[in-house]
Design a protein that fits this description.
325 residues, alpha/beta, 6-stranded parallel beta sheet, 39% helix, binds manganese (II) ion
């Protein structure tokens, strides 16, 4: 349900607040960062100063939209209002933000995840919408004036979460927003080349290693890649820069589930699940292990012995695929 009251109420409460904090999820992606920055700019247009809280400085790939922003990394102030974006669960937030929520008078969540857990006092969740950026755009449209920077922010968030406007979460409403953004001189070709296509040499080295690691199961229906802790130690490449493999294996004909495993810290496994099959829901695999996400793209974290957890992952994947034997 689209509620205009949410935006009106949020603006009203923020305009009476001393301090407003905005946060996305840990290990932020473009949609998370961009929806934070969009909220910050929208509030600023309403005469409200808000801080965007981050766990740690961002990778340089976020450069075009962050240079004029000051993030708060270790909040020492208390905030009377906390707004979260793109975060379906409280435990996905930076720990400092969880502390801020406990002390805040008013708390709001803006999200598009279908497994949103309604952990804030007031929530605006449009399930299945392309991105948190789209939810922000639709909810707050009466309260902002687009400009080059805000249009760039929305474009980058929506581009990222729709895989370049092709995932099943891309609706006519998404293109309706894009047509409004492209009125401004935002150079989508340069944004896409410089921030989504171009990769560092380190990212390429990790992609090469990940490709080399791929194993197939169940007659090629399941593909598994693994970047081990030794790969991270040898290359010194960050986890964020090692994820190029994530959207790749689902492209192989016959592959129904791509399981991409990363071990940035010894014994701690970050797992990204992808599918391009319309009849497969990878969030059902992630949920089994307390992970979450979307039908086509989900993630989870596991700690333990690799062979054991791989077996558990494969078993649950087979169940989701309806493979009984
Ligand atoms: Mn998102």
């Amino acid at each position: 349900m689209r509620t205009k009251a949410f935006a009106k109420n949020l603006i009203k409460i923020c305009s009476h607040a001393n301090r407003v904090a905005i946060s996305g999820h840990k290990n932020p992606d473009y949609d998370s960062i961009c929806s934070c920055l969009a909220m910050q700019e929208i509030l600023q247009q309403q005469g409200i100063i808000a801080d965007v809280i981050l766990e740690k400085p961002l990778a340089s790939s976020f450069a075009p939209i962050i240079k004029e922003n000051i993030f708060v990394f270790e909040p020492t102030n208390e905030y009377d209002v906390v707004i979260t974006v793109d975060s379906p669960e409280k435990n996905m937030l930076p720990s400092s933000v969880i502390g801020l929520i406990e002390k805040a008078k008013f708390t709001f969540a803006i999200d598009h995840h279908k497994d949103h857990t309604y952990y804030m006092q007031s929530s605006q969740v449009f399930e299945g919408e392309s991105s948190a950026c789209e939810v922000v755009f639709r909810s707050f449209e009466p309260y902002f004036t687009l400009n080059v920077r805000l249009s760039t922010i929305f474009y980058m968030g929506i581009y990222a979460d729709t895989g370049g406007f092709v995932y099943s979460n891309t609706h006519s409403s998404t293109f309706a927003i894009l047509s409004k953004l492209l009125v401004y001189d935002i150079h989508p070709d340069e944004i896409v080349q410089n921030y989504f296509m171009q990769i560092s040499l380190g990212a390429f080295e990790m992609f090469r290693r990940a490709i080399d690691s791929v194993k197939f199961y169940e007659n090629g229906q399941i593909a598994v890649s693994l970047l081990k802790n030794t790969d991270f130690e040898e290359t010194k490449v960050s986890y964020t820069d090692s994820k190029m493999i994530v959207d790749y294996l689902q492209r192989i004909a016959g592959v129904k589930v791509a399981i991409n495993i990363f071990e940035p810290e010894k014994g701690e496994f970050h797992i990204s699940l992808r599918t391009a099959s319309p009849d497969v829901d990878v969030s059902l695999i992630a949920k089994k292990f307390n992970g979450g996400g979307h039908t086509r793209a989900s993630g989870l974290k596991l700690v333990g012995e690799y062979n054991k957890l791989l077996r558990a992952l494969l078993n649950q994947t087979k169940t989701v695929l309806g493979i009984t034997k």
